[in-house]
Amino acid sequence: KAGVTQTPRYLIKTRGQQVTLSCSPISGHRSVSWYQQTPGQGLQFLFEYFSETQRNKGNFPGRFSGRQFSNSRSEMNVSTLELGDSALYLCASSLGDRQPRGNTIYFGEGSWLTVV
Amino acid sequence: QKEVEQDPGPLSVPEGAIVSLNCTYSNSAFQYFMWYRQYSRKGPELLMYTYSSGNKEDGRFTAQVDKSSKYISLFIRDSQPSDSATYLCAMMDYSGGSNYKLTFGKGTLLTVNP
Fold first, then answer.
1. How far is it, in rounded angstroms, from Cα A106 to Cα B2?
2. Which tens digits make up the pLDDT trace of B15-65?
3. Count of alpha carbons within 13 Å of A99, Cβ hemisphere only?
4. d(CA B75, CA B63)
5. For residue B12, what are the β-bridge partners?
6. What percent of the residues of chain B are helix, what percent strand, and what percent coil, each to the nearest 5?
């Protein structure tokens, strides 16, 4: 079965612009999480959506937002881009159950964002 | 103190060597432990997961969890050049609002030389 799909894979934006990234989870997965990966900070949790509701949120400013659609696909948006937002943005999906087995998380290939 | 500490390496070993990768953690609420492998410019790939102390084996890979010491390890036997990647430990707790959030180590870069 198809894995987690993220688009676009690579993009370059200018400081001050906004960007929208898209994620299609594994079929049947209802939870979608977003992570930011940078060389200095590693992988950091942004937020998680389940059944179109944000269920958990990391420590990122309000410029980072997301949403989930009824088909479980998700988008994240970053407004007023800063140079420090340059990173690999990873989407991950899981069944979203409260039991450990249901929380096995699978990642997509990521969207590489460069802010210039 | 960071919640999860992982030696970034780099770690370089000859082909066939046994590799040991380790993470320590401070949050005793962590109950679910995972190891991911990430090749350059790719997303992390789940290698193994466990939610109890002890060992879990899968082929050449063995994951070990010691909750009393807050220490987890990944052993790779008969390492191959194709194992060259960054290995990330990840953990999750189930208390309150922290569900569904993975906390990662920064990753260890491993190179296996032919």
1. 24
2. 999 999 999 999 888 888 999 999 998 999 999 988 878 899 999 999 999
3. 2
4. 6
5. B111
6. 5, 55, 40
Beta carbons of B100 and A33 less than 8 Å apart: yes
Contacts of A107 in chain B (CB under 8 A): 36, 43-46
- Hey, are the CB atoms on B43 and A109 less than 8 Å from each other? yes
Taking only the tens place, the pLDDT of each residue in A52-109 is: 999 889 999 999 999 999 999 999 999 999 999 999 999 999 887 766 555 678 999 9
Q: Which residue has the tokens 């194992």?
A: B83
* Among B73, B64, B85, B106, CA closest to B13: B85
> How many CB atoms are closer than 10 A to CB B72?
27
* Residue B40 CB-half CA count within 13 A: 5
A67 and A22 in contact (C-beta within 8 Å)?
Answer: no
Distance CA B8, CA A114 (A): 24
Query: Which among B41, B55, B13, B25 is positioned nearest to A39, based on CA atoms?
Result: B41
CB of A87 closer than 8 Å to CB of A11: no
